[in-house]
Amino acid sequence: MPEPVLTKADFVRRYEAGEFGNHSPTWDDWQSWLEDDGQRYGSLFHIRNRVAGGDTWYDVPYYLLGSEWGHACCCCKPEQLYISCMAPTELTLLQGEVQRGVWGLDLYYSTVRKPMRQALATSSHSVSGIMANCLLRGVMDPYSYEWLEYLLGAYPNHVIEFSVYDCDWGTVPLRNTVIWEVRAY
Predict the structure, then answer these.
(1) Domain spans of the chain?
(2) Edge-to-edge strands of the sheet including 26-27?
(3) What is the full per-residue pLDDT of the chain (185 aa) written as tens digits?
(4) What's the rounded Cα separation, in Å, for the pair 181 and 162?
(5) Rounded distance, CA 95 to CA 117, Å?
């Protein structure tokens, strides 16, 4: 059984190492992005925060990433920040948070095609049990659903944050679901 996720910084370290499966291509900082030629992964990026609920910068074009990184470092400590490719939000089928509850799965979700924070704030729904299970099976490819089941079993008392797209996307080929966060509740 893996160790529980204790902090957002702990999660990010393990996320970057691929512990939680399919995720967005990610770099520790702007210098790492430059050294890896991050631009080859796409044209839009996301400056993310290692602090839960911290500031985040969506849809940053590759040609502005250096200046936006500098701006973000003025707002937050540089070691709190990291960079990911911007997901294809225009192809979102479903995104949200799922956990094991008393009656099976508890799912809090949105189908709005925006970054998750914005989507859940715009329109969100909750379902449990067989309804949650059927909804997830209906949009996830079989391997993504199997991986979600693994994560829910391997990390009891944790919430899994994810997005499902109408295409394969992320670091693991042939997967339509990206795991954004695993956190204890």
Answers:
(1) 25-85, 89-184
(2) 26-27, 81-85, 44-49, 57-61
(3) 899 999 999 999 999 999 999 999 999 999 999 999 998 988 999 999 999 899 999 999 999 999 999 999 999 999 999 999 999 999 999 999 999 999 899 999 999 999 999 999 999 999 999 999 999 999 999 999 999 999 999 999 999 999 999 999 999 999 999 999 999 98
(4) 7
(5) 10
